[in-house]
Amino acid sequence: MANILRLASLSVFFFFIIYSPLFSNALSDCNGPCRDLNDCSGQLICIDGKCNDDPDVGTHICRGSSPSPPTGNCQPSGSLQCQGQIYPTYKWSPPVTSSTKAKLTNNDFSQGGAGGGPSECDEQYHSNSERIVALSTGWYNGGSRCEKMIRIKASNGKNVTAKVVDECDSMRGCDEEHAYQPPCKNNIVDASDAVWSALELNKDVGIVDVTWSMA
Ligand SMILES: *[C@@H]1O[C@H](CO)[C@@H](O)[C@H](O)[C@H]1NC(C)=O
Q1: Where on the tree of life does the source sit, at the highest rank (predicted)?
Q2: What is the distance between the alpha carbons of residues 132 and 75, in angstroms, rounded to a whole number?
Q3: Is residue 144 part of a domain?
Q4: Are 105 and 209 within one domain?
Q5: Could you tell me if the CB of 159 is within 6 A of ligand 1?
Q6: DSSP category for residue 95
């Protein structure tokens, strides 16, 4: 019995020897290890054991340095209740290829429009005559695709390039910032009127299957 106790306390001791240096240093920067937000520098918060931008603060300090998603892990990561309905939330989207399958939806990027707050990339509202899109959270990838062009192809043979300006939030929704809409699915290209008309699609259809790639 005494031996077992000694063994147990030894392993606890070694656990601290091994793991404490991880946390005893100064505050962690982007992707650095953390247990809670006190371990992260500045406005960063602790997400899944790593310091990252706080979506509620909307900073892009860690833009482009977020870890790449484990491929194939596009399962719902949680759920959100919205006006009595339960919606899945998604942290990741399917991998981006030269022909990424997506659902095209229509978004209003203008101030006072049905799209909610200003665009995530530049904190600005946009005219719906610009060829612009919002991408699901996984594809938005913490802002790494902001201001980049993507090419969208419709099954009618038409294609168009459009600029990424916003996130179609797959993790949050049902609040003022998201115009009280439920969270997005993880495979959404939410496009302006200009994108729909360039593809010669009728936005009143609501949702159309398309493919996209980085332009
Ligand atoms: C996009 O459409 C143009 C015609 O508008 C065509 O010439 C071009 O080959 C298409 N590009 C792709 C990648 O499908």
Answers
A1: Eukaryota
A2: 27
A3: yes
A4: yes
A5: yes
A6: P
